Each structure stands twice: as C-alpha cells, then as structure tokens.
Amino acid sequence: MGFRDRFFTPATARAILSWRILAGIGGGVIAGVAGAPIAIAALLGLGVYGGTVLAAMPRSPRRPLIDPFVLGEPWRQIVQGALSAERRLRATVDGVRDGPRKDTLRAIAEQLERGLDEAWQIARRGDEIDDAVRRLDPTSLRSKLATLEASAAEQPSAETESAIASVRRQLETSERLQRQSDETAASLRLTQTQLDELVARAAEVGIGAADTTAYRREVDDLVVRLEALHQAVEETRSA
After folding, report:
1. How far is CA 196 from CA 101, 112, 118, 192, in A?
2. Which candidate, 75, 83, 85, 78, places its Cα nearest to that of 198?
3. pTM above threshold 0.85
4. How far is residue 50 from each of residues 23, 162, 189, 217, 220, measured CA to CA in Å?
5. In Å, how far are 9, 41, 42 from 23, measured between CA atoms?
6. What is the pLDDT of residues 7-35, one digit of tens each?
7. How far apart are the C-alpha atoms of 229 and 158, rounded to whole Å?
C-alpha cells in the first residue's frame, strides 16, 4: 500500500477533520506566545497538524516472514524457487536506468511480491494438509482395515462392522486430503514456472523491448490465479 493508497482512506479523512485541527492551531498559538514570528508560528502549527494526521494514517501491511525451511517437500522447494525468482526480479529492477520505465517495473515487481506472499500461504496450507495425512497414517489404516475385514469374515458382529465403517471413513478422508495436496502442489508448480518466465522477461520490459501493458496484465493474471488457489485451499479447513 503506497502513500497515495493510505492517504485516500476513511481513516485519513477522519483524521484530517478531527481534533488535530485544534492541536495544530494550539501549537501555532503557543509558538506565537513564546515569541516566534507569525510565519514561523504558523509553520509550526501546520507541522503539528500534519504530523498528527500522518501518524493516524493506515500503515502499509507488513509482508509475512517467508521461511521455506519450516516446510516439508514439495512445498519447501517450491517456495525456495519463488524466493529465488523474486531476488532475480529485484536485481533486474535495480539494473534499470532511473525513470518512468523503472518506476513502472518496480510497481509490477511489487505486484509479483503479492503473488509470492500468496504462494507462501498456499504452501503453508499444503504442508498442514500433508501433516494431517501423516497423522491419519493411511498405511496403518489399510492394515487395520484388512485385519478387521478378516475378522468379520470369520466371526461377523455389529461391533466389527462399525469399526470397519469407521476405518473406511478415515481412509476416505486421508485420500481426499492427499488428492487436495497433490492438486495444489501441481497448480503451485505451474505458477512457479510462469513466475520464472515473467521474471526472465522483466529484462526486456526494462529496456523497452517488450509491451509493458501486456506484461503487467500477465502479472496481474498470475496473481489473481494465486489468490484463487489460496482461497480454494483455505476452504479445506471447513470441508
């Protein structure tokens, strides 16, 4: 969130038309009473007012701390690849001559950082799903199911049938979660490939050898897809 985005917010509007006006006037009056020239007193009062308004403006949200080493595979490798792409992109932007094109490319890089943040959240959720699958231990569940089915064949009982049904439901849950994990990892790998391509093409944009508008649109599309994937994987929490 840039300064302009933080300025044009309801919170800033309320701060502009608040007690801070009186604080500014009061600061100017006090300076005048203390003997400061009128112009200096007015500037001091304006400074008090402006400072209190700036302090009330919304802060830019802090980026999440991304640590791929807290994740298992394949999530760790995917996030490491995304971080590497971000570093390459930043190096490309830094190498562009100062001017409007660099400013535009920097804004696009910030949009790609949003995509990286989304990828990090997706990877974290994918890792949580894998942990849930490991806790369910499908291999052990299949072994238990085979034992129960053999017991039911020799000596059927309502209790055994109930236990079989319970184990089957647990297996279905683990299989459903595993499919979700596999599909999410595949989608994230695809976006990683597309991210690498966009980073490679940033150099062309930086020297004016590529259509900046088309490039920005492709970046926006990638970020939108990552946001949609993030939302989809988060929905598994209530599934």
Report:
1. 21, 11, 16, 6
2. 85
3. no
4. 10, 71, 47, 37, 35
5. 21, 13, 12
6. 667 777 787 888 788 887 888 788 778 88
7. 43
124-154 pLDDT, tens per residue?
999 999 999 999 999 999 999 999 999 999 8
pLDDT of residue 4: 60
| Owner of token pair 């039911």 | 152
Return the amino acid letter for 67. D
Cβ proximity of 130 and 70 under 8 Å: no
Q: How far is C-alpha 18 from the geometric centre of its chain's CA atoms?
A: 34
**What residues contact residue 81 under an 8 Å CB cut-off, 6+ apart?**
192, 196
- Model confidence band, residue 183 (pLDDT cutoffs 50, 70, 90): very high
The DSSP string of 28-81 is: HHHHHHTT--HHHHHHHHHHHHHHHHHHHSPPPPPPPP--GGGS-TTHHHHHHH
85 and 109 Cβ atoms separated by less than 8 Å: no
